[in-house]
Design brief:
Layout: H1 7-16, H2 19-37, H3 39-45, E1 55-66, E2 75-85, E3 88-98, E4 104-111
Antiparallel strand pairs: 1-2, 2-3, 3-4
């Protein structure tokens, strides 16, 4: 199978731009804002009370997206982070980066 995308170069670019750390940082900012701004929803999600040590996060996927298909002038890198509580998936955080610069374009925090 031929590689039309150099995966090693892509991984290096993601690492050099620090996109994983930016995604994790963005997740915590959104998580803490959700906890403060929507306390009822937060309590409903964690019915038996919240214990930080039961929360875990992991990078679910990193993808390159042609956002303006078939043109190739508007592309993004999307990192999806899943978060679990007590070994059960609670939600997903997605951070979208400009491909040319690595700058944050958008993010989405979603609780299931």
């Amino acid at each position: 199978m031929s590689n039309f995308i150099n995966i090693e170069k892509f991984k290096k670019w993601v690492t050099e731009k620090d996109l994983e750390d930016e995604t994790i940082k963005g997740f915590w900012e959104n998580f803490n804002s959700w906890k403060e701004e929507y306390p009822e929803e937060f309590k409903e999600t964690f019915e038996d009370g919240f214990e930080l040590e039961k929360l875990s996060t992991y990078i679910k996927s990193v993808s390159f997206t042609f956002t303006n298909w078939p043109d190739d002038d508007y592309n993004h890198v999307i990192i999806r982070l899943s978060f679990e509580y007590d070994e059960e998936i609670v939600g997903e955080y997605r951070m979208v980066f400009e491909y040319e610069t690595g700058e944050i374009f958008d993010d989405v925090f979603h609780v299931y």
